[in-house]
Amino acid sequence: MQGAIRLHWRDEQLPEGRGPFLSYGNGRSYGDSCLNSGGTLVDLRGLDRFISFDADTGVLRCEAGVLLSDILGRFVPKGWFPPLTPGTQQVTVGGAIANDVHGKNHHRAGSFGHHVRRFELLRSDGSRLLCSPRENADWFAATIGGLGLTGVILWAEIALKKIEGPAIEVESLRFSGVKEFLELSRASHNAYEYTVAWIDSLTPGPGGARGLFFRGNHAAGHHAVAPSRRKPGLPFTPPVSLLPRAAVGLFNTAVYRWPRRRRAIVHYEPFFYPLDAVPNWNRLFGRKGFYQYQCVIPQDQAEAAIGEIIAKVARAREGSFLSVLKVFGNRRPPGWLSFSRPGTTLALDFPDRGRSTLALLDTLDEITAEAGGAVYPAKDARMKAETFERGYPALHRFERYRDPAFASNFWRRMTSGDT
Amino acid sequence: MHKVLIIGATSAIAEATARLFAEDGDRLFLVARRKARLEAAADDLAVRGAEIAGCEVLDVNELDRHRAVLTRAEQALGGIDVALVAHGTLPDQQLCQASAKLTVEEIQTNAVSTVALLTRLSELMERKGKGQIAVVTSVAAERGRQSNYVYGAAKAAVDTFLEGLRQRLYKVGVGVTTIRPGFVDTPMTAGFEKGLLWAQPETVARRIHHAILKGKDVVYVPSFWRWIILAIRLMPRRIFKVMKL
Q: Which residues are in the FAD-binding PCMH-type domain (chain A) (predicted)?
């Protein structure tokens, strides 16, 4: 059991004696980093106000519970876009900082923390810290990617970027194997702001997994493009998965084979947020649910390690329809516990089939750790403390900055072995 | 563009409704008790597209300041098209039962102050001969229940006052909208277990905004409360008095 309190105003304090606390945004993290059994979630969705916007520079100051969808809704029509966006617009600004999220433009823009100019942090002792790369820089770096454990982010200042309209010019290319993917990435990173690839983790081809490479830019000029039409979604969780292996295999083949225009101009919604169009898509996996797995591998090891992971997943026949590859850029991560770093990232989801799934994920951890990579805490529900420590060498420094009255299930699992 | 005066502008329902006016680019004058929160709401509404004509800190129980604040609002806005009165507290029924002083204070805040404001406001608007007055009462106004009758009685006083005011102002072209919310998930109701009947402020705000612009007389928000309240009103007193409601 966990309790929750909702903050509504920036002048509020945390109640005494209700800890351990955990900052909570919109709950879109896949694992247990946004859960706090036996403690109190500090729900920040009530802090959903804009504070100021500078129409000359694009600098937006807003409260931490503002959703990316609020920003898009208000500012795209005025010609502004977030500096980067993760795969859903249903995340709060505070959550985007606490997980230092990344997007399809990481090779250019880095991660969310790179675009945060300032924020205010409320600690459980009632103190308030203004943090920026120059002021309280240590708190700034601890809180970016700090999983909501350093206190509560009350508001933040980010810089939006100028766009001409809501359209994205996208090109899609078939590829086969990790090597071909890496070559396509290298060839595309100069001319394209956004790159990402979908791979079929069920059917490895002769040269490795087959996939589709997408690259795009904000389109210049005006285009009549329509946002995603909301599908009916799933009103309840079906008892069993609606994604049996055979159906996913067929689906993946269809996605790969489906004749598609090589170049298209689309609205930003279907480009960035295909899953937002299906409310509660996670329920497709049935009551047993699924695990997400996302790792990053240093570039010199990427081809071998990612090839090995994909081969292992294909052999175990555990994969599913959402498998994503992306080459990150070389900017130094802004947070001590930032996940995105130079290298190639792979995200997969796995229907929970019990022990076999967990065993496979442990194997993937080993491959990742051997290659000097890291697993993404925002998507984790099962990695071992040792894997986390190896991927995040600044962990011990971070611990001194964690608010002593803050914790999460993830944190307890990583530091004391219990959940 | 509408010129909108909002009293109790930091209440969750008022703030959510104000955002809809802001998105239309309306001109707003905001009144609330706490300065920092009033400013936070105003800043947000400005970024959302509102033209903020002014803000005024007012404790509605300072009845002798009402006239000055309303005059300032009217001048800053350049006339009032819409006045939304949304301030209020949710009294602790148990504490009220043990304290006549507290009960009277709650009636002051939730009924007397509102009635005083409405008296001055209707004067202003009657003179102009146009506009819409919208006031947040409650479904609790419709029948006193042991769990909540101090609040219910205060809201009932306002509700009945509005019924008469509507008749009076109809002749001169000023509309009066009575807004009766059911259970809404706001800071005022933070201590309650939330169930199926609870609505979010954004949802009720859409209906309130629509009702004000259409000049509706009485709206239940959400609308299904009309039927729940009908059932409660129709219940014979013999049965009602033994119930736990």
A: 1-163
Computed over every residue of chain A, the mean pLDDT equals 93
Helix B113-128 × helix B66-77 angle, to 10°: 40
A180 and A313 inside one domain: yes
CB A355 within 8 A of CB A363: no
Q: Are B155 and B111 in contact (CB under 8 A)?
A: yes
Whether residues A47 and A147 share a domain: the answer is yes
- A312 with A402, same domain? no
Residues A311 and A190 in one domain: yes
Are B47 and A52 inside 8 Å of each other by CB? yes
Give the SS3 label for residue A158. Answer: strand
Catalytic residues of B: 151
Residues 6+ apart with CB under 8 A from A255: A198, A200, A212, A321
Q: Are residues A158 and A243 in the same domain?
A: no
Provide φ and ψ at A167, rounded to 5°. Answer: -90, 145
Same structural domain, A327 and A366: yes
Residues of A in contact with B44 (CB under 8 A): 49-51
* Closest CA relative to residue B31, chosen from B14, B17, B16, B19: B14
Mode of pairing for the β-strands spanning B27-32 and B3-7:
parallel
B64-92 CB burial, b ≥16 within 10 A, e <16: eebeebbeebbebbeebbbbbbbbbebbe
Q: Which of B50, B52, B149, B45 is nearest to B107 (CA)?
A: B149
pLDDT in tens, A325-377: 999 999 999 999 999 999 999 999 999 999 999 999 999 999 999 999 999 99
Token code pair at residue A178: 């990790």
* Domain of residue A110, CATH code: 3.30.465.10
Scan for tokens 């903050």, then name that residue.
A7
CB contact under 8 A, B40 and A51: yes
Q: Which of A12, A18, A50 to mutate to test the interface with B (most CBs of B within 10 A)?
A: A50
Q: Based on the number of CB atoms within 10 Å of its own CB, is A42 exposed (0-12), middle (13-18) or buried (19 or more)?
A: buried
Tens of pLDDT, residue by residue, chain B (245 residues): 999 999 999 999 999 999 999 999 999 999 999 999 999 999 999 999 999 999 999 999 999 999 999 999 999 999 999 999 999 999 999 999 999 999 999 999 999 999 999 999 999 999 999 999 999 999 999 999 999 999 999 999 999 999 999 999 999 999 999 999 999 999 988 888 888 899 999 999 999 999 999 999 999 999 999 999 999 999 999 999 998 88
Ranges assigned E (strand) in B121-174: 132-136
For residue A310, list its beta bridge partners: none
pTM over 0.90: yes
A9 with B48: Cβ contact below 8 A:
no
Evaluate the omega torsion of the peptide bond into residue B222 and state whether it is cis, within 30 degrees of 0.
Answer: yes
Range of the domain at A344: 167-391
Q: What is the pLDDT of residue A419?
A: 46
**Residues B141 and B155: beta-carbon distance below 8 Å:** yes
pLDDT tens column, A366-412: 999 999 999 999 999 999 999 999 999 999 999 999 999 999 999 99
Q: Tell me: do A99 and A174 sit in the same domain.
A: no
- Of all residues in chain B, what percent are helix, strand and coil, respectively (each to 5)? 55, 15, 30
What single letter denotes the amino acid at residue A167? Answer: A
Statement to judge: residues A36 and A104 lie in one domain: yes
- ipTM comes to 0.93
Tally of structural domains, chain A: 2
Residues from chain B that touch A8, judged by Cβ atoms under 8 A, are: 12, 187
* Spatial separation of the C-alpha atoms in residues A41 and B129, rounded to whole Å: 51
Instruction: Report helix, strand or coil for A121.
Output: strand
